[in-house]
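Memo to structure team: turn this sequence into C-alpha cells by end of day. - J.P.
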Amino acid sequence: MSPPAPGNAIELQNVCMRLGGEIILNGVTLNVPHGEFLAIVGPSGGGKSTLLRVIAGLLAPQSGTVKVSSNPALVFQDYRLLPWRTALRNVQLPADLGAGGGLDAPAALHLVGMSAYAPYFPAQLSGGMRARVALARALAQSGDVLLLDEPFGALDALVRERFNAELRHLHDKTGRTTILVTHSIREAVWLADRVAVLREGQILELVDTRGEGRVSAYTEGLEAHLRGLLGTGDSTRVRLPHRERWSKTTLLPLLAIALGFLAWHLLAARLGQPFLLPTPAAVWQKFQANAPLLWQALWVTAKTALLGTLLGGLLGMLLGYPIAKFRALERFLSPYIVTSQSTPIVIIAPLLVSWLGFGTLPAVIVSALSALYPLLVSTMIGVREIDRTYHELFDTLHAGFWQRLTHLELPGALPVMLGGLRLSASLALIGAVVWEFTDPNQKGLGFRVQEAGVSYDKALQFAAITLLVLFGVVLYAVITAVERRVMRRRGK
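Reply from structure team:
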C-alpha cells in the first residue's frame, strides 16, 4: 500500500464495497489531513462501520484505493478486552504482539485516568472503565491514526457526555488523526473538525464544524436543570466480585459422607460377615497396620496416572487444535476418533503386553489413551467457541499464528479445556488401575486390591480401594479449584 500525499493521514479514492451482494460503499472519496478529528454520521446500515473496517485494513474493497499513513488503531463498539487479562495487560497486548510503538501501557492508562485500576480484570470494571481501557490500548499501538466505532454507544447519557469532553481533551493533547463513527449529531458537531454525512454508501457532504459545537446546549436551559438533578456521570465504578454468603448447604457433602459411613457401618454390623463386608473401623485398623505398603502402592498408581494425564492431555491438545481449525480434518479422522473412544481400554492392555511387555511404559500408554479423548474434544470445542470478534481484534494488531495461539486461542479455550482435564484425570486413573490388574510387576493400588482379594483379606481390599478413591477425589478437587479460579477472573 502506497502512502498518502504529504499532509494527509488517510486518502480514499472511489472506494466501492459489496457484502452479500449488496452495495455498502459506493464510490467513497475522502481525504483526512494529519491531526484532524473527523466524525462520520448517517443512518444505521449506511456503511459507517464498514468504512472504518476498510480504513483499518480488515476489509478489502472491490475497487478503489485506500492509503493510510500508518497502521490504524481501532476501538470497537464492544471494546473486545480479553477477559483473562488485567486492564494493564490488555493495554500491553499491542506491545506483546509486536504492534506497539505508541504510548507504553502505564502511560496510556494514566492518560485515560485508569492507573489506579491497572490490576483489575474487565469483569470487575464498569462499562465506562472498559471503554477507557480500550481507548488506552489503541493509544499504545503504533501509528497516529485512531478509529472509533461508536465506542460510547452503550454508555448512559451522563457518562457519554463526560467521555465526549475527555475525548476532545485527549485529541488536543495527542494530536492523533481521529475518525469517530457516531449517531449523535450533537456529539459529532461538538467534537469534530469536520463531519462527513454518509448515506446509502455515499458521502453526501463534508461539513466544516470547527468552533460550531455549542457547549451551551449541555449547560443551559432545561437540560442543565435535569443534569443538575442527575449529577455528574461516573464512569469509574469498580464491580467488586460477588462473595457468596456462607450457607448451611455447604455442609451437605460432609453430611452425605457421614451418612454413607453410618450406613456402611450398620450394614456391615448387621451382616456380621467381615469376609464379605468389613466395618469402617476394621478397614481403618487394617490401613494403619499396612500404611507403608499402601502409601507405596499409591505412589506407583499416582505416578502412572499423572504421567498418563500429562501425555494423553498433550496428545489430545495437539490433535484437538488442528481438528478445531480444519473441519475437513475432523471428518477425515472421525472414524479413528470414534473407534478409539468406543474400544474398552481393558481390551488394549493385553495387546500392549504382547507388543511392549510389562513395565512402566505400557502402563503410562494405557493411562494416556484413557485420558486422550476428553482433552481432544474439549480443546476442539474451546478453540471453536472463541468469539470471532476477538480474532478481528488480533487482525488489527497483525498477529501471527503463534501470537494468536498463545495470546488468544489457548487462554480463551482454557476454561473448557480444564473441564475436559477433570474427566481425563479420572479416566487416566482408571487406565492405570486396569494395567495393574494385567501387570503383576506394577504393584500399585490396583495390584494390592487384587492381591488382597485372592487372600480374602476384605479389610485390606477396602483400605486400598478407599485410598484410591480419595486420591481420585483430591485430583478432581484440585483441577476444579483451578477451573473456578479461572472462571472467577472472567466474571463467571
